[in-house]
Amino acid sequence: MSLPFFLRTAGTLLLALAAALLCVWLRTPLPWMIGPLLATSIASILGAPTHSWPPLRNAGQWVIAAALGLYFTPQVTALVAGLWWAIVLAVAWALGLGWAFGRWLHARHAERIGGDARTRWATTYFAGSIGGASEMTLLAEREHGRSDLVAAAHTVRLIIVTLLIPPAVLYSGLHGLDASLPGARELRLPGLLALSAATAAGAWLMARTGRANPWFMGALLVSMGITMAGVELSALPNGATNVAQLVIGVSLGVRFRREFLRSAPRWLLDVALGTLGMILLCAGFAWLLAWGTKLHVATLVLGTSPGGIAEMAITAKVLQLGVPVVTAFQVCRLVAVLVLVEPLYRWVGPR
User: Which of these, 121, 129, 156, 209, is most buried using a 10 Å CB contact count?
Assistant: First the structure.
């Protein structure tokens, strides 16, 4: 008999908290996210009844987005707007790299995927695209691709990026050299309540209209808009972002199950190898952009990496790098991929 979901959720959160505190004691990078991610991943693979409650994950994304939006002061916004050409290049790079990754997966696995040419190409194309996991999975399913393989590919990619890039930046000594301060740095209860209400309303509206990643994007856009207008309502409590990182780490870690790893080991191995290759290629691209923009290379490594917005922006915040630049690059890429990836599929896919 399985445990009720609330007991599984509570047990998973206690395990994640213990892992986070251990990582804090060990002084590991991003302890509040990487500790829970590793602990819940290992527990899930071993067969433990781990569980992530979606409303907690949504609340974590909401808190992180509200905190990130506070960095977009009018001065910083002007700086980011001047980088429009670099952001356009980064979007084109991401689309091209995702297409190439999809072609490589197609060459390696087309015969194993089964189905007709449309199924094979839809599966590999959307598995290689650097976009949101849920959105790419839905698009693949709409085009008769294998959604299970697409979801698995994005899970592996996201976790590898989250586990590798933050420690690499930390131990390279490149952190803390490109800091941006949030607009509001003082905690004010009335302002905090107003900020919470406004960002929650933005997230709710995005969710109601069926937009992608609503709890992150809605809260981020509202928080950015308030800060860009020069209004400083309140900073967020210090512990709020730690708790948010914990629940996001748990939501990533519980995706790994024993049956998940047994389902298509060759596929997962090639996705892992391809992700490592993409990380290296994106790092090289970031060095070129750093030369052209005169920005710090570590900031652009996070901005162009094939990871998720929340994870890379959290890394920038914790390691004191250019949070607005990283957020702008990642958000613009996500929006562009969501808008362009399906038309491009119809253009380059099988007739």
Answer: 129
